[in-house]
Specification:
The complex is a heterodimer.
Chain A: H1 3-20, E1 25-39, E2 55-69, E3 74-85, E4 93-104, E5 108-115, E6 148-157, E7 160-168, E8 194-195, E9 204-214, E10 217-227, E11 232-240, E12 248-257, E13 259-271, E14 274-285, H2 287-295, E15 303-315, E16 323-333, E17 345-354, E18 362-370, E19 377-388, E20 391-401, E21 417-425
Parallel strand pairs in A: 8-12
Antiparallel strand pairs in A: 1-2, 1-21, 2-3, 3-4, 4-5, 5-6, 6-7, 7-9, 9-10, 10-13, 11-12, 13-14, 14-15, 15-16, 16-17, 17-18, 18-19, 19-20, 20-21
Chain B: H1 10-14, H2 34-47, E1 54-64, E2 70-80, E3 88-95, E4 103-107, E5 115-120, E6 125-129, E7 156-166, E8 169-178, E9 187-193, E10 199-205, E11 211-223, E12 227-237, E13 243-253, H3 264-267
Antiparallel strand pairs in B: 1-2, 1-13, 2-3, 3-4, 4-5, 5-6, 7-8, 8-9, 9-10, 10-11, 11-12, 12-13
The chains are: A mainly beta, B mainly beta.
Chain lengths: ~425, ~270
Amino acid sequence: MNKKIILVGAALTISVAANVAQAADFELSGYVGAEWREHFEKGQFDNGDVKQADRQFGLTVEPEMVWSLGDGEHTLVFKPYARIDSEDDERSHGDIRELSWMTYGDDWEITAGLSKVYWGVAESQHLVDIINQTDFVEAPDGEDKLGQPMIKLTFIRDWGTVDSFILPGFRERTFPGEEGRFRTALPMDTDNAQYQAGEEDAHVDYAVRWSHTLEDYDLGLSWFNGTSRDPLFTPSAFVQVGPAPTDLAPTKLAPFYAQINQLGFDLQATIDSWLWKFEAIYRTYDDSVKNDFDQMGQSLEDYSATTGGIEYTFYGPFETVWDWGVLAEHQYDSRENGAIALGQNDAFLGSRIAFNDTASSEILMGISQDLDSSGTQSFILELATRVNEGVKLNVDIFLPMSDDDENVSYQFKRDDYIQLSLNYYY
Amino acid sequence: MNAFKKLTATLATSVALVAGMSAHAEFSLAGLSADEQGLAIAKERKARDIGWGDSASAVTMTLRNAQGEESIREMRMKSFEVSDDGDKGLTIFDKPKDVKGTAFLNFSHVEKSDDQWLYLPALKRVKRISSRNKSGPFMGSEFAYEDLSSFEIEKYTFKFLAEEQINGVDCYKVEQIPTDKNSGYTRQVAWLDKEHFRGQKVDFYDRKKSLLKTLTFTDYKLYLDKYWRPMQMDMINHQTKKSTELNTATLAFKTGLKESDFSKATLKRAR
């Protein structure tokens, strides 16, 4: 985490905010939450010293402060986030999700500070979405993101919208601790993250995206140059296991953040009750890094990946007022190495029901199947409903399964859980 | 989040559904068939609602179930009149608090289906959504999306039924049969006052042709000396005994909104 940039940004924003506070419309909102996660099976990596959590309690808080000036011409947003976890110290963490200033004109917009950006259309995997780092300790689905330092300039034209980004500073992915769940066999050495770039987490990344709507089609084309948000992994923290100087064995795994170029494309066609979705990326690494990884016995190659599928919605089926959606997506990844690629050749089938009741109840269920490994699949269920004015109840079930120790999912095979969370919104 | 779909064109324009204006042109139904009379009334009503430009409003919905338990929805709506097509609308939700900041953008079209996008603030994600769902409840209320969409001649076939009084006001009673096969109604019966062509009451009949809901309009106010808007709309569901009261807290026209304020690119900054 690039503390200097964040601190400077914070100081600037707060001083500006203080100066304009009287003139500004101020609004505070947000939520506090309580969470209970129960695991069905003992941890896969339990041993004499380490016991992975069976039951986790969590408290979360995410206030959002918004100052709006000059009739909305300038907006300052401050949105910190914190979680306390009863078992996993790495999961107890804080982040500044947003600390940014935004202004705009008729056909342009500028955002500066820590912020979040979402790209893409698919549901089962978010390939194209690359600006923000994943806050992986939050949930294994990767939907939670860390605040990213950025200067974002947007131009809105008849032929599309262009977002250009300068990204000064990099956020490392968060990983569960030794006693947490969704950890790797060798614990993650997050204190010794490695970088290809000499500037490490101060490397400045760039990105640009064009997006446009043509009748029933929404499409986007993007390019990213800089530090990959997805780490590679290298063995670290070696210990002597034999008499010879070369008898060394790693006790940990260190994340390695390579430089990449990535092209992205996303397309959605919205036709009657059908949504057709497609995302594709092409990612390249520098030869020097490929050679280094080859020498370590890990193959690293340029690759492409796609996610494509459909969502069809039945409106008011069976004489109800429900919206009942059916989803099917396929994930492809050109890499041969199953140990690093999730979604190489996987199918996702799901169903989403919006009950359209006063409580805004919704349920999403789905199953992912690895088509190259019949014993590797996962089941998800997400239920949300409002139990009282301002109080939302969520029930999440995630059941990863794998009998293939070459598969990246294998290390999570006993991390099945059910989670209840209550969030109070104010 | 599907529940936000298809709140087309905002209330301001939706109310145009039945609101008329006080242009005192000669209006006569003489010598026309019942179908022609119905169409003439609809055209007059539409003609009296042209030229309002743009509007911004704050709206509260009170949902009541059969036991009288209440649930509150609050939203702000912005509308932009498009002269040669359907209007553009932007709705920003304030309550319930868990959906605060969710924004809904609608480009309604006369000849083809509407274009709709939803902004989900927690993910910062803008989603294009299907506009196919017309009959579903809006925000869990008794208003369906189609009840809140702007009034367009092409959406119905009309038939003049009678002249009747509603609450002491002389009205035209007109049958409206939706042309869209996705409508949740087989027919509607609307009462429009003869002086201003404003909606006073609408009965909605479901797909089984039984009376489903009744909508009444009260507390009309005049804007820009020309456009009447009801400050209160009450929808009662006769079959479930649930009801929704929709109150307009503030409403202003010609607020300086531009067409560029209604775009997928600017949806993310809607607050």
